[in-house]
Amino acid sequence: MRIFPVVIVAVTGLVAAAPGQAADEGKATQGAVIQSIAPPVKQDTAPPPLKLSDTERSRIRAVLATTHTDVDTTQKENAKAKDYEPVAGTKLPEGPVDDALPLELVNEIPVLKSYGYLKLKGKILIVNPMKREVVDVIPES
Description:
The chain is α+β, with helices and mostly antiparallel strands. Helix content is 30%, strand content 14%.
């Protein structure tokens, strides 16, 4: 009979210690995942800088010319994009979802692996999908 109360106390002690420990870890790195096994994993990784040549931009335009993924701003979920003017460095409005770039392009231009794209208002937007930020704007024609 004495074993049962000891087990309850031990389990209660573990449960009570866990929230405090999690709260202390959360203060240092808000929202980050703490890895307890080496090697450490870098937090808040950013994609490599995107500096496309005119030839690469032309190739992106040519490959994406055959895709019919234009954002339809008349749809309710994309309504906020109606008044949005695409400019590099701005965040995308709520609604439109970027697509992965075709494998053909990623194989030719490896830096594009970390980026997505949208076709909006006659422009191809190269997007950082983690921040929903427009990195480059390429006219479709």
